[in-house]
Amino acid sequence: xxxxxxxxxxxxxxxxxxxxxxxxxxxxxxxxxxxxxxxxxxxxxxxxxxxxxxxxxxxxxxxxxxxxxxxxxxxxxxxxxxxxxxxxxxxxxxxxxxxxxxxxxxxxxxxxxxxxxxxxxxxxxxxxxxxxxxxxxxxxxxxxxxxxxxxxxxxxxxxxxxxxxxxxxxxxxxxxxxxxxxxxxxxxxxxxxxxxxxxxxxxxxxxxxxxxxxxxxxxxxxxxxxxxxxxxxxxxxxxxxxxxxxxxxxxxxxxxxxxxxxxxxxxxxxxxxxxx
Amino acid sequence: xxxxxxxxxxxxxxxxxxxxxxxxxxxxxxxxxxxxxxxxxxxxxxxxxxxxxxxxxxxxxxxxxxxxxxxxxxxxxxxxxxxxxxxxxxxxxxxxxxxxxxxxxxxxxxxxxxxxxxxxxxxxxxxxxxxxxxxxxxxxxxxxxxxxxxxxxxxxxxxxxxxxxxxxxxxxxxxxxxxxxxxxxxxxxxxxxxxxxxxxxxxxxxxxxxxxxxxxxxxxxxxxxxxxxxxxxxxxxxxxxxxxxxxxxxxxxxxxxxxxxxxxxxxxxxxxxxxxxxxxxxxxxxxxxxxxxxxxxxxxxxxxxxxxxxxxxxx
Lengths: 276, 315
Hints:
The complex is a heterodimer of chains A (276) and B (315). Chain A has 276 residues and is mainly alpha-helical.
């Protein structure tokens, strides 16, 4: 007489709840770090080169054309000092955006890493939190190198400038979460070029990196103020120049809420894509 | 280790629907511990969807399913911890080396590195990949990638190994090496579930199998039982000159009557089912039926499939 196998204690432990969620996400982070071990030199060099080039070309070249000693519009700081933190925030946006497009798409459909990983006890929310943790790690290293370059240019006003690092990471994550959600709906990479051309690059130009948004027509100013980059730039610049506006909690709250909401959407869309 | 009476996977009325499309329609089957169980059928028959439900990768739409005594709806992670899954298309991590693929996969199962390292070395040895341990995955041959995918599926020492078309796309040598390795796994007491559309693979590997067609199971049994039940001992394959062929109906206008139990007409040949193929061939010669060539062979699962569905397995 055949009997159906009963539930037996397993050889591998499966942690549940919060501890399990953290452990699962940590595995995804660990996997990306394993890959990063081979590429970190080039990656860090890039993080070093980007601010150096911008600050040299635009800061030194362009600021010669502007009133020395800063202008009232720039909040009374030299253009180089205005520009540096802006570039930090927008570089984090660009790196976070890139890391959330092609690499995620690749893991969903080209190389099917997620399919392989989901055959193990790892679940979709582990994937998402793990990838966001990885991007946060990348942004932290990048922002740290960036701060060193800013310091070489003598831009930070006080040790408070270190707060620009978490602010820049938060800015980047506010792009990663919605873009992972977008990537989860795509079946090829054609949408990504459009994303960079029509969203990321215009934001880079108009969200307060190069000039204060108050220079923009009112309607455009409101659009700019609704984007995460604007809030990120305010926080990063406020930290670096020690001119944090009293409204900073609102900017932080905006970014955190934006990440939470779009992160949840990303989870739902990834789940729909990966679990059929 | 011979198959036991214990049922490791139990399905009743198991159904998978995608919107309006029914991929698996109320199938019943039991897989016993330590047996190799096959799902045979053409592409699109519902084999992969069934596999994915067993592997807890795809939610069950309807019906009953128990895997290793647990319910995939509520205990997916616990079940997955004890499964090895070899998907149809290799999904190795191209950014990691051969060995790292195994070590990282072990970490997904929360297996400590101190356990994973010796196990990975052992599996690389078993799958003849030791020399490639430090290499990237991409330059490996198809057969090596397949072996690495199987090694990866074994990293958690699974009780149940699910293989979806394990040898599709491999050359004959690579297939035979894989079959031999899978056989050894079975000898060690692992339970295997294999999908395939190659009947030789099913005959080689499977203790019992089900034939699937159009989302349903159309027959079940051991390869021998199925052949005995749905085919004759032997088959006479006839190729007929095109000029003659056009004027013949399915039974050669009655000229084959009494020579074969059954006749199947394929695009390029006729199959005559008879327990004695040579005798049937003599009869064909005796009746002066013009033929290009004739071949007598043993009946296979392909014939079973043809009988059940009227179609060839590999189209």
